[in-house]
Amino acid sequence: MRRFLLRLAFTVALPAVLLAVWWAASDSSTDVYWPPLRTILKTFPDVWTAERLRTDALPSVLRLAGGYATAAVAGVALGTVIGSYRRVRAVCEPVLEFLRAVPPPVLIPVIMLFAGIGDTMKVVVIASGCVWPVLLNTVEGVRAVDSVMAETARSYGITGAARLRHVVLRSASPQIFAGLRQALSIGIILMVISEMFAASSGLGFTVVQFQRGFAIPDMWTGILVLGLLGFLLSVVFQLVERRALGWYHGLRDSTRRSR
Amino acid sequence: MKGVNSALGAAGLAAFLALGEAVPRLGLVKEAYFPPTSRIAEALGNELADAAFWTALGDTLTGWAVGLAVAACAGIVVGVVVSVVPYLREATASTIEFLRPIPSVALIPLAVLLYGNELRSVLLLVVYASFWQVLIQTMYGVQDVDPVADETARSYGLGPWARIRYVLWPTALPYVMTGLRLAAAVALILTITAELVIGSPGLGARIAIAQSSQAVPDMYALIVVTGVLGLLINVGARSVERRALAWHQSVRGEVMV
After folding, report:
1. Is B254 within the bounds of a domain?
2. Residue B3 placed within a domain
């Protein structure tokens, strides 16, 4: 009980202090760009009504989910193929290295040419930016499958889909998740800026609208919402990862302890 | 084997370029949207001959380098202090876990209001994004210090500074290098993003201008330039890493986060 309370104190103390400092420092602020925290919090419920969440936050999240899921499936599928064949990998490697190095936001103008400025554009932008970390990490993971394990599986006659599922993808999954994690933060960046470019709804659009209209406290609430969204998505990701990679973390802990 | 691989890689690159030439020529996609490789190459040649292009490249590299340097120094110092001072790590953990996933592009409206399209608004985004990469890796590295080595140093009477220099720093360096490599890539992404969205001078702004004036081949040429820049930064960061860790028994693999 005491340890729990101590941990709780450690978790809450600094955020509380920081918020208090922000509150106190900004309380009598007359600077237009730094409104008092009180004003921001007071504006928050007025701006982010259920209606607004439905018309702005939901489309953003759906676009992100669509693009991210497409990228994850395509990245793992292509990565497994490329990683499994040495020759294919050698042919593709320089091209992939180049495509990965292109900063994803510059794809927005290109994709706008093909897909206009609708939802398709945003989903394609998110997918085409997120796919590279997933793809390259899958290639690395599939390539690094333990050869003893692969040969044991072969001598037990495990081939085809079972081999793919239980040996190849399973042993590549820590790497795949590392790629998915990188892809998530790229996906959020692309979600926001694709909406800043051209949109009629979405979080990025709304925040920029507030900024252009000099609705400064509203803009601050938008920044807070984007921050909260980023934080929530990373919490969800961690939960999924902990479930999916539970065996791996356990294995790593036990080898670390026995060392 | 290595020769065969690079030959195959060159063949892959050649096939990619040829595909880029053939697809629009055969009319599979509109040439206005996707110009053939040769037209992009021509536009690239024009860009390279243009002095304004080199100014833009210089602006982008300045934003990238200054932002990365600030983030690296701050990340390393804060990371070491937070891990060394007792209880500070526990006290800051929740704050770091909360602030880290906040997308730096959320700060774009604030940057625009505060600094307009000056270099400072680019730096705000770049520093915020790359700081966490360095900080987290530095903290992992300091955590990895062998307690036996640390206590040995202590019992030989090494002071705090000597222990940081000779025990903590060599242990943390491989992690710090990983953090710097990741931060270098993130910093480029954010520099270009800021220029593209906010319009600070640089390659990103040039891409935005090419887009709004319908100069499609130039836009593709500039995108190729950013890709090459990203590639050079990746390769450069890797070679710096190898050089800085030449003394290390094995240049360590990627740290799983």
Report:
1. no
2. no
> In the predicted model, what is the mean pLDDT of residues A9-31?
83
Q: Inspect the interface and report whether the beta carbons of A33 and B102 lie closer than 8 Å.
A: no
Report the number of distinct structural domains present in chain B.
1
pLDDT tens per residue across span B12-52: 889 888 888 888 888 778 878 888 888 999 999 998 999 99
Number of domains in chain A: 1
Partner residue facing B103 (CB), from A18, A97, A185: A185
Q: How many CB atoms lie within 10 A of CB A85?
A: 12
| Interface mutation target, options B100, B197, B225, chain A, most CBs of A under 10 Å | B197
pTM of the entire predicted model: 0.87
Task: Inspect the interface and report whether the beta carbons of A87 and B8 lie closer than 8 Å.
Answer: yes
Residue B252 lies in a domain: no
Is pLDDT at B73 greater than 90 in this prediction?
yes
Cα(B186)–Cα(B64) distance, rounded to whole angstroms?
9
Using a CB-CB cut-off of 8 Å, the residues of chain A touching B222 are 106
| Residue A235 counted as domain residue | no
CATH number of residue A81's parent domain: 1.10.3720.10
B9 to chain A: which residues are within 8 Å by CB?
90-91, 93-94
Stronger pLDDT, B254 or A37, i.e. the higher one: A37
Chain segment A132-173, per-residue pLDDT in tens: 999 999 998 988 888 888 888 889 988 888 888 888 888 889
ipTM: 0.84
The H or E element containing residue B3 is helix B2-25
Q: What is the CATH number of the domain that holds B110?
A: 1.10.3720.10
Q: Interior CA angle at B88 toward B84 and B92, to 5°?
A: 125
Range of the domain at A168: 56-195
For residue A13, give every residue at least 6 positions away whose Cβ sits within 8 Å of its Cβ, in sequence order, or none: B91
Pull the structure tokens for residue B39: 């037209």
